[in-house]
Design goal:
With about 130 residues, the protein is of the alpha/beta class. It has a single domain, classed as Nuclear Transport Factor 2, Chain: A, CATH 3.10.450.50. The protein has four helices and seven strands; from the N terminus they run βααββαββββα. The protein has helices at about 15-30, 30-35, 55-65, 130; strands spanning about 10, 40-45, 50-55, 70-80, 85-95, 100-110, 120-125. The protein has a seven-stranded mixed β-sheet with strand order 1-4-5-6-7-2-3, covered by helices on one side. A hairpin with a 5-residue loop joins strand 2 and strand 3 (about 50-55). InterPro entries: NTF2-like_dom_sf, SnoaL-like. This is Nuclear transport factor 2 family protein. Pfam families: SnoaL_2 (PF12680).
Length: about 130
Amino acid sequence: MKTDNLRVNQLSPETYEWYLKYLEALDSLHIEAYSRFLADDCSVQSNNNPPMEGKQVIMQGLAAYWKTFASLEHDLLNIYGSDSSFVLEALNHYKRNDGKPVTVRAVAFTDRNEEGLVTSVRFYTDTTPLFA
């Protein structure tokens, strides 16, 4: 994960550290590590696709999706919002399964419950270059 380009961060120091660990779990493509951040009734939606509802459904969907590329690295640009609801603007650096690097801009809206677990993620990005 890259943080050198982070211009705006409106999260508290504690939530920022939590979010870095969350993103590290994503970048590691380690499904069990990532699942520890999610509430059981979490919802994840990508672009205009129907949302994946529930932790188990999300884990199955992400496990399949993560096999379509070799690696992922978040490059943080801006984080706006509060500790319970925030949005990340980032560059996502992928390595395709054929070894070709691809970078796409992405925005992710995240909501957390009182226990600090993720209840909703809505992310918007054009991954067409990743699969071209």
